[in-house]
Amino acid sequence: MNKTASQLQQRLLAFLGGAPDDFDALAREVFAFQFERNPAYRAFCESKKIAPNRLTHWTQIPAVPTRAFKEMTLTCFPPHEAVAEFHTSGTTQSHTGRHLFKTLALYDAGCVPQFRAHLFADGARMPIVSLVPDTPHSSLAHMCRTLGARFVERLEATNEPVCLLGTAFHFLTLFDNGLVLRLPAGSRVMETGGFKGRTREISKPALYEMFEKHLGIPPTRVVNEYGMTELSTQFYDETMRVGHRSDLKRSPPWARVRVIDPQTDEDAPVGATGLLRIYDLANLWSVMCIQTEDLGIRMGDGFVLLGRAPGAMPRGCSLNAEALQNA
Predict the structure, then answer these.
(1) Cα torsion at 253, 259, 262, 264 (round to 10°)?
(2) CATH code for 107-250?
(3) Over 90: is that where the pLDDT of 60 sits?
(4) Of 25, 31, 112, 215, which has the fewest CB atoms closer than 10 Å, so is most exposed?
(5) What are phi and psi of 267, to 5 degrees?
(6) Any idea what the Cα angle at residue 52 is, between residues 46 and 56, rounded to 5°?
(7) Residue 302 · residue 316 · CB < 8 Å
(8) What phi and psi values does residue 3 have, to the nearest 5 degrees?
(9) Which of 187, 141, 140 is nearest to 164 (CA)?
């Protein structure tokens, strides 16, 4: 890591740690860094006639579709230098995507405070238990390890409150199979993922009612986490921060989320449904601006996640495959 890269990473680590900084200036600096060092991304930007010296605001930074991680390697460093490689689930295609990390310092620096701010806003302390399989190429498993979770294959009765981590579908399967435990007061849950490609699907309110029925954990102590392999930052429902059920998610200082109208490729009006576009400064060593295929609604200074929109892609956002492959 040369001096310039090291200095930029240290500035980002300070920002993630709470130091004041200018998001716009920092985002444009990260873009310039990625434009210079990520050949595939640079080819994509050049096909759109966008370069660092032409930007006047962070919202002009080109977004890479999540599906691009399935087609090519998007890194700002030689792939053989990666210290970690996270794979996508592969539910939408026969092959998976991958996100390579030169270092996990930024990922880990943002992961812990975000989690604690949303799952332990009340200052409680308790064991963290993960039902997520501890596999080497899962970003979710890495997050659980970073949080100090204990991995288990099944839930058992306990005399002390616990914080459970797992996917929505896994919890639903346990409930459908008859699991019933009365966990101690104060216990809580972080659930993540949806039901895309699954044989069974229920609404979020219905699932949260099942947490209370089967585990004794009320909906006010169940928090949805939104993250993906292609990102380094996670987003959480505000429920435990505000003391009541809330589907609203807010971005940490080092990230921004826009709700994009797929017909215009511009911001959708407040309250209108659009596709989520995420700017994640912790993605220093890959691509910071990611166009998802997830639907959401802009609500005040946050957003509400609605679910997947398979095949939807904003106009002008598809990759120039030839330019990328020839980079």
Answers:
(1) -90
(2) 3.40.50
(3) yes
(4) 25
(5) -60, 130
(6) 120
(7) no
(8) -60, -45
(9) 187
